[in-house]
Amino acid sequence: MIERHRSLESQTALDASRPPVRAEVDPVRRRIFTFFSLAVLVAGVAASAVTSAWLPFQYNSNLLLIGPLLAMGFLLAEQLTIDVDVKRVGWTISFTEIPLILGLLTAPFEVVLAANLLAGLGAQVGRRAATHVAYNAGVMCLEIAVPFAVAHAVNQAIVGIGPDWFGPVVGTLTSPLISCGFALAALHVLGGAMRVSAGARLAVNTLAVGLLNTSVGLISYEVARSTLWGWLLVALVAVAVLGLYRAYSGLLREQRDLEALSDVSLSVARSGQATARGPSDGGEAAEVSVTEWEPVAERIREQLNASRVVLRLRLDPSGEVSTLVAGDPLPEAAEQAAPSALRDDPLLQLPGSHVRSFRTLEAPEEVRRALRQRGAYESLVVPLRGASQLLGAVEAHDRVSRWRGFGRADVRLLHTLASHLATAMDNRRLLARLRHDAYHDPLTGLLNRTGFREMAAEELRNGRTAVVLRMDLDVLTTVSEALGYTWGDRMVVAAGRRMREALGTDAPLARLEANAFAVLLLDHSEDEAHEVAKHLREVIAEPYPLDKLVVEAAGVAGYVSSAPGDGEPENDVDTLLQRADVAVRAARNGEDGVRQYAPAMGQVFLRRFQLVTQFRQALDSGQVEVHYQPKVSLPERQVVGAEALVRWSHPEYGRLDPDEFIPVVEATGLVDALTSFVMECALVKVRKWLDRGLRMSVAVNLSVRNLADESFPDRVAEALGRHDIPPELLTFELTESSVMEDPERSMPVLRRLHALGVVLAVDDFGTGYSSLAYLRQLPVDEVKIDKSFVLGMGTDLGDMAVVRSIVELGHSLELVVVAEGVEDDAARDQLVAMGCDIAQGYLISRPLSEDRLEAWLQARTVRRRGPRSETVLTLVH
C-alpha cells in the first residue's frame, strides 16, 4: 500500500517549484485540508459502521491469538518498506496487503480494523508525531471497511462458482487504490496535484505491487493450511523474501544517498558562483545570502525524510549565525530564541564532528526544553567543521513515518552529507578568498589594478559615463628612505582610508602601485570630477602623525573622461589609466596640482612610446652614435681621455636630447643594450688610440640596472680581453643615488669592477648624499664635481666654497678630482688654484663625433714625449 502519513507530512514540498526559505502551504489550503480531513474521517467511520452492521461479529477463541498477530503483522509490514520519490513527494511502498488478506481470510472486520488502527495511529501518537490524525484515521478505516465489504459482496456473487479466496483478493486490491486515490486528492487540496496521466500510472503501479503482495499472502495462507509443515515452508520463504528485500532496500538506499551527496555538492558549488562574478570594492570576500542555501536544505530534508531541516551557517565574517528552515516552519518561540552563536543552544554544543541524536524521552531536561521549543520529538544534529573553524550545524527534526524514527542509516548519511557540505563550504570560502586577494591590494584592502580594471570595464560595458581619476601621494619615497618602509606603508594606509571616507562607498577606489591611487567616478561631469580631485588633494595633504613625528604630504591628480558611446576604443580601461597618468605628470608642473587630460598630452606619451619601441632598431641601424667630450689635466693641459656620450638622430624627430630618451630607455630595461653599445664603441676607440701610441681613457656612464646586474663585471672583463685593453683605460661613471638605491646589490658589483682594475668615478658629486661616510664606503678612484657648482663659482661664493671643499675632500681620500662644466678661463684658473686635477667643459670642447674628435685633436693639440717616454697630446692656446 501507499503510506498516507508520509505523503502528507511532505506537504511543504508538494509544489513543482523549489520552496522559499520557509516553504509553507497557503493558509487557505490548510483550512480546506482540515475540512477535507474531517470529511475523510466521517466517511471512514460511517463506512466502518455500515460494514460492521452488515457483517456481524462472530467471536472465536482463536481471535485472542489472531488479533495480536495481525497487529504485529501490520507493524512489521510498515517497518519493511521501500521508499521512492514521485514528483518530489515521498511515498512508502509497504507490504500491508499481506496482513490485510490474512485478516480477510481469518478474522472478523472489527479485529482487523482494530489491529490496523493500533499499528498505525498508536505508534504515531506514542512518538508525538501524529499531525494528521483525522485524515489518517479516516483513510485507515476505509482501507479496512471497503475491502471487507467488497470481499463479502464478491463471494456472495460467486457462491458455488469461484473459490472462497477470490472475494478477499479483490477486496484486498481495493485497499491500495483507496490509499492512492485519497493521497492524490489530498495533494490536490494542498496545491501539489499531479497530471492525470501521471496519477494513472501511479495507480497502475500501486495496483501491481498490491497484487504481488496479495498473491504472496494468499499463497502463504493456502500452503500453511493445506500442507503438512506448510507453515515451516512459508517461514522459509518469508526469510528469503526478507533477505531479498533488505538487499534491495540497501542498494536502493545507497543509490539515493549517492544522488543526494552529488546534489548537495552541486548546490553548494552553484551557490558559490555568486562570489566569482567580479571584484567588490574593498572589504571581505563577498558571501552569498542565506536563501541561496535553500536547495541544499531541502535536498537534505527529502533524503532523510524529515519533517524539518534547519541549517545554521556562519556566512557573515563577523561570525553571526544565519538560520534557514526547510519543511515545517519553526515555532515562533524557536524563531525568537534563534542563537546568534552556535554555543548558545544545548543542542548545538557540538564537540568533535559526529552526529548527535536527541529524543524527548531520553534527553536531559535542558535538551527536552530545546526540543519542545522547536516543536520536535526527535533531532539529529551534526556540526559543519572546516579546516580551521566551525562553519555551522545541521539539524534534522522528526522523521516522517508512521512509527519509525531516525535509524543508523540516517545517522551515517547525515554524517557523510555534513562532511561533504563542510568540505564544499571550505573550498568555496578558499576560492572566494583567492579571488578577493587577486582583485584587492593586501596592504590597504582596496581594489588593486586588476580589480579596478574589471570593475571599470563592467561599468563601461553597461554604457555609463565614467571619469577615471588618478591620485599620486608625494614624499612617500622620501619617508620610506628616511624612516623605513613600514612608516611609508602606514602613510599609504592612512591616505587610502581618508580617500575612502571622503568618497563614500559608491565610488570604486583602488591602489594601483606604491603611491598611486585610482578612483572611478560614475555619471560625473568634468567640473564635478575636478572638484572631487581638489577635495581629495586637500584630504591627503593633511599632516600624518607617525608615532611622535608629523609628516607633511601632498598629492597631484589627473583625470580623464570616457568618450560617449559604448565600445569605443578610447573607453578601454588601460587607455583611460594611461591618459590619467599623463595628466598626473602634467599636474606636477601646474599650480593647483590637478589637471584634466588633453589630447595634446597624449602626443608626449605617444612620442615616448615610439622612442621605446624604436630604440633597439635605432641601435642596429646606426641612428644612435657615440660622441666624445675631451678631458684635460690641470695645469699641464694634457688630453687624458674623453667621456663617451650617446646621441640619437631620429628620422622623424631629429636630434634628440639624451635627457629625453635615456630615462625612458632605463625605465624599460633597454639600458643594458645601450651600455653594452657605448662600452663597445669606447673600447674600439681606445684600441685605435693605443695602436697610434696614444694612451687615453674613455669614461662610460652606468645606470642603476647595470649596478644590479651580477653578470655585468663578467661582460666587462670579456670585452677588455677581446679588445686587449688595459683596464685602467676604461672609466665607469656612476651617481651616488644609483649606488645607494640598492647598496646590497650594487656594492658587490662595484667591488668586482674595482678588482678588474677599471677606474670608478662618482658623477654629479655634491647633488646626492655627498657625505664622507658614503664616499668612504664606495670603492671609487675619482669624483666629478657637478657642473652646477662650477658654473656658479664666478658669481656665488657659496658655490666656490663647495667646489673647494670637494677638491680638498677628494684629495684627502687620495681620489682624482674632475670638474665638469668649465666654460671660461676664470673658472679654469680658479680650479688650477684649488688644485683640481682634471677639467671638462665647453671651454675645452663640446661633445664631438668620432671624426670631428680626430680633427679637433689634430688642430688643437701637439704631440709630445711624456716623462716616461710615452706620447701625450697637449692642448695649445
From TrEMBL:
Keywords of this entry: Membrane, Transmembrane, Transmembrane helix
Keyword presence, Nucleotidyltransferase: no
SUPFAM superfamilies per UniProt: EAL domain-like, GAF domain-like, Nucleotide cyclase
Cross-referenced PROSITE patterns: EAL, GGDEF
The keyword Ribosomal protein appears for this protein: no
Residue span, GGDEF domain: 464-599
Transmembrane segments: 32-55, 100-121, 133-153, 165-190, 227-248
Ranges where the EAL domain occurs: 608-861
PANTHER family in alphabetical order: CYCLIC DI-GMP PHOSPHODIESTERASE PDEF, SIGNALING PROTEIN YKOW
Name of the protein in question: EAL domain-containing protein
Species of origin: Saccharopolyspora taberi
